[in-house]
Design goal:
A hairpin with a 2-residue loop joins β5 and β6. Helices cover about 50% and strands about 5% of the residues. α7 packs antiparallel against α18. The strands form two sheets. It has a three-stranded antiparallel β-sheet. Strands 4-5-6 form a three-stranded antiparallel β-sheet. The chain has 18 helices and six strands. It is mainly alpha-helical. It starts with a strand and ends in a 28-residue tail after the last helix. The structure holds carboxymethyl coenzyme *A. Carboxymethyl coenzyme *A (CMC) binds next to α17. Carboxymethyl coenzyme *A binds next to α17.
């Protein structure tokens, strides 16, 4: 017998049997599609706390248990054995690649790793001190102008080509944001380097000096990118899906995702963490900041703590915390006093009842900023790094949505609480 939940309108006595859908894992989902047509009602769920907006086979996370799976593979195993590029393939295609598939994938990305020379002129329109995220939003959106008329989003081949273009070009756009801010010449992509080496080369090489990426930095950045690659239906991914549901240009959809990611409640948190640690300045000041975070009359929150879904340790945070310690041990001559502040802040917060009761654990962004700082990536670039890593997640979710038999434009409803109908009063009579 099929599982249902009955919703009854006590006022009219009318009832609706709603099917209960079960996925591979996770809470069962009540299908309410007919709620309006049968009972004339909508559901009300601000912040989408209990609303499943789509079916997805890409990523699963269990916030109570602290589990994160990509295409069924635990994040811990991917972090230990895989690479960012292999994960890109997995997210896009659903399976890990064979050696040949992987080589073909790399070769395809290498064919796409140039941007039109004219695109470089867009950067010139931005002031030298423009926030790199504002530049990234603009230049990613501008990619849509190069791939619009000829791009048929209903053609599966065009769609996968779009995904490859996004993965191949985002490192270029991101590195150029940094080069613009320091006034250095843009560096072209190199196909002889790995994905991460190439990105670091575009960031840090200059015509007057050779640059050899430090293998320790390459490994740490690859890990960081794995941990940020996808995270199911978060705010930026949902933005990409919503924009995509209107059949908007996919590069513009990715730009919309970047807009959302910039918010400090989302990807902007990694930058906010470092700014907060700088403001704390000394371990002795931590209690005062903890008190502020607990004060309901103070809008201050401990950046890098808490998560909408994880009510247990964020599994990515566990991995990155360990990597953070290892990196600081391995990188010679690195002295990050803020790491000491971060560790003490973490210790105090984890023992404090306010944080324990609300299940506020350090999230991935609490540590990612420290790793990026150790890699000499400037603070204002942190959210760009997040966007670069997440772009594969966005485009994989877009691909999945475009292929979904339930595909239709997203159109949330509302609970209207404004004025009742009233007569217009001319301005001289008001
Ligand atoms: N510091 C102090 N109190 C907090 C914090 C924090 N970081 N986060 C939540 N709370 C309190 C909040 O005041 C509320 O208390 P009360 O029940 O007494 O009113 C309670 O915890 C629940 O908070 P909420 O705002 O209902 O939780 P949410 O699920 O809507 O928000 C969040 C999740 C991540 C936006 C929030 O925890 C936050 O603002 N954290 C700091 C920013 C941050 O680190 N963001 C990165 C998220 S991970 C990266 C990503 O996926 O984007």
């Amino acid at each position: 017998m099929s599982e249902t939940v009955t919703i009854t309108d006590n006022k009219t006595g009318k009832s609706l049997e709603c099917p209960v859908l079960r996925g591979t894992y996770g809470a069962p989902v009540i299908e309410t599609k007919k709620l309006y047509s049968e009972l004339g009602m909508f559901t009300f769920d601000p912040g989408f706390v209990t609303t499943a907006a789509c079916r997805s086979a890409i990523t699963y996370l269990d916030g109570e248990e602290g589990i994160l799976l990509h295409r069924g593979y635990p994040i811990e195993q991917l972090a230990e054995h895989s690479s960012y590029l292999e994960l890109c393939y997995l997210l896009l295609h659903g399976e890990l690649p064979t050696q040949t598939e992987f080589e073909n994938f790399r070769a395809e990305l290498n064919r796409r790793n140039l941007v039109h020379e004219h695109l470089e002129r867009f950067y010139a329109g931005y002031r030298y001190d423009a926030h790199p995220m504002s530049i990234l939003i603009g230049v990613t959106g501008a990619l849509s102008s190069y791939y619009h008329e000829a791009l048929d989003i209903n053609d599966p081949e065009d769609r996968i080509l779009t995904a490859h273009r996004v993965i191949a070009k985002m490192p270029i756009l991101a590195a150029h944001c940094y080069k613009h801010s320091v006034g250095h010449p843009f560096v072209y992509s190199r196909s002889d380097l790995t994905y991460v080496e190439n990105f670091l080369n575009m960031m840090f090489s200059v015509p007057c000096r050779d640059f050899t990426p430090n293998p320790v930095a390459v490994k740490a950045l690859d890990l960081l990118m794995i941990l940020h690659a996808d995270h199911e239906q978060n705010a930026s991914t949902s933005t990409v899906r919503l924009a995509g549901s209107a059949e908007a240009n996919p590069f513009a959809c990715v730009a919309a995702g970047i807009v959302t990611l910039w918010g400090r409640a989302h990807g902007g948190a990694n930058e906010a963490v470092i700014r907060m640690l700088e403001e704390i300045d000394d371990v002795k000041n931590i209690p005062q900041f903890i008190d502020r975070a607990k004060d309901k009359d103070d809008p201050f929150r401990l950046m890098g703590f808490g998560h909408r879904v994880y009510k247990n340790f964020d599994p990515r945070a566990k991995i990155i915390r360990k990597a953070c310690h290892e990196l600081l041990d391995e990188l010679e001559g690195i002295d990050l006093p803020m790491f000491e502040i971060a560790m003490e802040l973490e210790r105090i917060a984890l023992e404090d009842n306010y944080f324990i009761e609300r299940k506020l654990y350090p999230n991935v962004d609490f540590y990612s900023g420290i790793i990026l700082k150790a890699l000499n990536i400037p603070t204002s670039m942190y959210t760009v790094m997040f966007a670069l890593s997440r772009s594969v997640g966005w485009i994989s979710q877009w691909l999945e949505m475009m292929d979904d038999p339930d595909f239709r434009i997203g159109r949330p409803r509302q609970l209207y609480v404004g004025s009742e109908t009233r007569e217009y009063v001319p301005i001289d009579k008001r």
